[in-house]
Specification:
- The protein contains 17 helices and eleven strands.
- With 425 residues, the chain is an alpha+beta fold.
- β8 and β9 form a beta hairpin.
- α7 packs antiparallel against α15.
- The termini are far apart.
- GO terms for molecular function: RNA binding.
- This is PORR domain-containing protein.
- InterPro entries: PORR_domain (IPR021099), PORR_fam (IPR045040).
Amino acid sequence: MRPLAIRRREARLLPPLAVLVRSMAYVDVKMRWKKDASFDAVPVLSQAGDLRPLVSLAGLLSPSPTPVSAVSKLRIPLEVPDRRVISFLRRFPAAFVESVGPEHNHPWFRLSGPAAGLLQEEREVFAARRADITSRLRRLLLMTTRRRLPLRVAQGMLWHLGLPEDYFRCRDYDIAQDGFRILTTGDSVCREEEEDGRELVLIDNGEHQEMPKSVLQMDAIRRFGSMEMVPIPLFQSKGLRLKQKIEAWLEEFQKLPYVSPYEDFSRIDRGSDVSEKRVVGVLHELLSLFVTCSAERRRLLCLRQHLGLPQKFHRVFERHPHVFYLLLKEKTCFVVLKEAYMAGRDTTIEEHPMLAVRRKYAGLMEESREIIRYRRSGKPFPSKHEDHEQIEDSEDQDHTQLRQPGKSISLCPNRGLLFTVFPGE
């Protein structure tokens, strides 16, 4: 028999001391989700799931009656939560007025007076505050690693940034004057209506300008006069108590170096607490750019690679409940930046110019629920708007106008607007 070979253990190099210290200092933060009723009372947050399709449908409809068939097949693109678009339109009578069509008694809808006024106000706000609104898209591109975004991803962020949904499609906006351009990458030739292989980039690529300061850096300058230490504002939830070891870890976490979302982070160890603080800072800066300082958690997943976030960055929301709040609504999880709603005036986050318009849209949704409640009880609704008081008269008038000979309504596919066409024009 052959003697058993004696295996020699290969000499292994000991890990550096920094790795040992980091592993021992790690604290596994696990906290149960605690509901905060104050966020559920904010209409733009509690009704966020219906607010986006309502505004989108308001942009497609017009003050003149429109057949429901013109928008009935847009349920998936508009992300209408109801199974049918007509059911969604009937849930908001304060925004959409229903009438009977000229043939086969098909339902037609038009915008109410307040909804048409809000649509016009939204366009006026964008025209007046265009530089402020488009600068938020520019900051988002500067936060990315390549200073560019796929056009599909950028299109999905327009709603959160307060930009018109046809900002990239309509030539009237002329995105070049805002410093943007669209490039086609790859060998395939893309048609104008397709967005595969197209990217949104900055014309100057952000090379010949100073990088902007983040909201946390401006807050540190306001509070301490310098950026030597940049803590993250914390806001404790009601009824949420932290363990002593977690509180100690949180105090040390605030003292860690801060890396701006606009700086290079390639030298940072991905498993260190400094990297985690950078992830918190990136998400804090991202949410501060949005209209409501909130977004669906699943919508942030498409930005993971472009912002240099780890694969399971969503755990940051659970590890830092004093910074972010998870709003669970209708089987959807929304991430809310607490500082925007709990700091009051003691914050450097600037209110988005489009926030006031979104609040008015949410007010129409609340008024729609009141109208439906009064209809079920058989009582007349004491509306503040003349448009709601004369709904029946307007429906009869629309029905008469639709039956006029030689008059037709056509839908423009590019802008989604309705035009009345008369013979001889």
